[in-house]
Amino acid sequence: MFENKVITDAGLELYAEAVSKTLTLTRVEIGSHYTPPDELAALTVLEDVIKGVPITQSQVKIYDKVTEIWTQINNSGISERAELRQVGIYAEVDSGEALFAVLQTGEYFPIQIPAQAAEMPTFTIDLSIPIAHGSAANVTAILDLSAYVTVGELEAAVRHLVI
Fold first, then answer.
1. Residue 1 contacts by C-beta under 8 Å, 6 or more apart in sequence?
2. DSSP type of residue 6
3. SS3 state at 16
4. Cβ atoms within 10 A of the Cβ of 150, count?
5. pLDDT digits (tens, 9 = 90+) for 32-55
6. For 69, how many CA atoms within 13 A lie in the half-sphere containing its CB?
7. Do the Cβ atoms of 44 and 99 come closer than 8 Å?
8. Which pTM was predicted?
9. Do β-strands 49-53 and 22-31 pair in parallel, antiparallel, or remain unpaired?
10. How many CA atoms lie within 13 A of 88 on its CB side?
C-alpha cells in the first residue's frame, strides 16, 4: 500500500531532542500530493491536504522499542472523490510540533477515497503504523475518540469488562 516510509529531517531532530523526554505523536493528516521519494525526508508539511484523521489507538510493543498507532481514514466531509497518496504523522517535544514521518503510495497507485454522499455514504480504512522509538525516552500519542468502532473491537472490549 505504501511504497515509501520515512522519518523526516524534522522527525530526526525531534528524536534527538527526546533523548530524556517524551515524544508525543499529535495528529495525522492525509494528502493527495506525490513527492519524489528522495525528497520526502525534507518535507515540513504535507501539500494538498485532504483532511486530518484521528489517532484512535496507541500501544507500545516489542520490548518497549516500537509504538504502534492506529488511525482511521474515512470519507466524512469529502464531497468529491479524492486520491490519497500521503499520510503525514506529526509529533512534538519541547520545541514544538513538526512533521515527523511520511508514508507514501506509489506515484501511479493512489488509494481512492469515494465522495461521502454521492458514491458511498460510509467508507473507512483502519491503518496501523508502527513507529520505532529511536532515541526517545518515551513515546505517547494524543488519541481522538471520535472514530468509528468496529463490531470486533466492541466485542473484544465488552469481553474484558469486569462486572
1. 105, 111
2. E
3. helix
4. 12
5. 999 999 999 999 999 999 999 999
6. 27
7. yes
8. 0.86
9. antiparallel
10. 27
